[in-house]
Structure formats: C-alpha cells, structure tokens
Amino acid sequence: MEGLPPRSSDTEPTVSQSEALPSGYSTREPGINFAEAVADNGYLWWYVDAISDDGRQAITMIIFVGSVFSPYYARARRKAVTAAENHCAFNTILYGPGGKKRWSMTERGSARLKRRADSYALGPSRIDWDGESFLARVNERCTPFAQRMQGTIRITPSTLTAHSLQLDEDARHHWNPIAPIARVDVDLPSLGTAWSGDGYLDSNRGTEPLADGFSGWDWTRARLSNGDCAVRYEARHGARKPHRLALRFKKDGSIASEETRDAAALPRTGIWRVHRRMPGAEARPTRLQTLEDTPFYARSLIKTEFGGETGTGIHESLSMERFEQRWVQTLLPFRMPRRT
C-alpha cells in the first residue's frame, strides 16, 4: 500500500537487544491487508481500542472474517467445514460516562462482504486506508434501544509495524501488533458522541477455531507515562504451560522484550463471575473498572505498573471453555443478530 506511515526501520523492524524476543517472532508486511486469505474454519480479525483523553469514555471495534465468538459459526462448524467469509462482523462498542454502553454486533454473510487490500466493507459499514489513517464509517442499529449508530472512527498510527508473534506451539495462531500507539478520533453524531484519545490497533489470525488452540487467555495493553505501549499476554492451552509475552513498543515501532512474570489473580466480574488474571503483574492495580461482563469474556479499564512505569489501558479475560458451553451460545444471538 502506498503512503504508509514510517516503518520502524527502512529495512527490518528495530528490535531491542536487551533481551531476546520470544520464539515464534517473525516479520511480515507492515500495515493491514484486508484481502488476506482466511482458512476454512479459521479466523482473521482486526481490533481497535481507545480511551478518551479525559478517561471517561472508551471504544472497541473488532472487524471479523470468521467471527470467533459467533454462535452461528460454531454451529456451522459442528456440521461441516465452513468458509470463514460467511461469518463476518463489524462490531463497535461504546463505553460512556456512568457505565452507559451501546453496541452493534451484527453478523453478516459473504454476500454482504467486499474486501480489497486497502478496504473492508460489510453491509452498510466499512473501513478504508487513506494513506495516513484508517477511517471506519459505521452505519448500524445499536443496542439497547435500536438507536442509529452512524458516524466515523479514525485511527492514525504513529507507525505501522511488521511484527508478528506466534501464540501456540503448532504455529496455527498468530498476533500482529500493527499499531500499538495511535490516536483515535470518534465522531458519531447520531449518538451525540465525539472525542479523541490514545488508541491501539492489532490483528489476530488462525487456521483453526480459536477453541481448538486455547482454553482461554488474559491480555493487557497500556499506554505508559513515558509514551511507550506495554503489552502482556498469557495464552492458556489446557494442561500445557501458558504462553506468556511481555513486550514494550515505542512510537517508532521498535519492540523490546521485558521480564515475563506469573499472572496474579484479579477480582472476578460482578455478574458472570469471570476469572480475571493480570499477566506479568508487578503491582496491585490502582484502577480496575469493568466495561464488559459476559458469560465467557470480560473487558476492563486498568491502571497499574509495567516495567517500572505507570500505565492505563485495556484488560481482557477470555474463557473459551465457557464459550464452548451450549447454554452460553444459546444466549449470544440476543446480542449478536445475524443478517444474511
């Protein structure tokens, strides 16, 4: 793609030599290829989050080819090998002051999907790369009151990285921190919402269902007081040893490993009692505000220490063991309608 922001280097990404990067580290083309091939039964998603500059609002946006949390995709896979493109979603969730939340998580089939290297369109919503930023145009009905969610979310990376990290021993699941440091501008006039804040953009891809590779994970990304981005990952694979990552990114896209530590238990969520763990915990969080409390997933705002620096960011806990329970999947269509 032309007009990319500066890479971390003219040749290879800058890597700190203070500690070797984890096994399974590799590089790929920087940025996003929205037309990337996706294996049957597999998945590809792009994830964006941001916290407003005043700390009172947040947003997450997840764009799927092969929606890993779709009860429809799970049901189809139980019957036969299934094309990921027939289970796509353009999910947008807003978290406002006082716990006010609005979300749009409609799934659509391949007939409503158009993908090119620099654009992804699903039904009435789309995202495009314009040479400097990613511009998402959202046009959906949102819950809980079927309001129109219409407007734009612009993601402007400080740089686009080429980092790719393996999340499992069999190299079937990979994570790409595309733009760990970004600015995000939210403008949704239909909801009276407009703000800017620090954001983050990454991608995950896999050649098999997520539940085949993981029993669950905990993940955190935080913007540090010195401007860096810290990421902590603990992916669990049943009886296997957890796969842990402790990484730091600078605005130029350079990456460095930090000491990996055992995860520390955090309080469970209030409604669904989801287990939360802080990967690589160094101190007790001074803020833990639950944004999302579902039967198998929790998202929270967190403030704690990373490599000696204070950071504020997003924390998530995922239980694929819970997601695989049929009673959980029976509940999900109320939050995730499907429109073919």
UniProtKB/TrEMBL annotation:
<keyword id="KW-0456">Lyase</keyword>
<dbReference type="GO" id="GO:0016829">
    <property type="term" value="F:lyase activity"/>
</dbReference>
<feature type="region of interest" description="Disordered">
    <location>
        <begin position="1"/>
        <end position="27"/>
    </location>
</feature>
<protein>
    <submittedName>
        <fullName>Hydroxyneurosporene synthase</fullName>
        <ecNumber>4.2.1.-</ecNumber>
    </submittedName>
</protein>
<feature type="compositionally biased region" description="Polar residues">
    <location>
        <begin position="11"/>
        <end position="26"/>
    </location>
</feature>
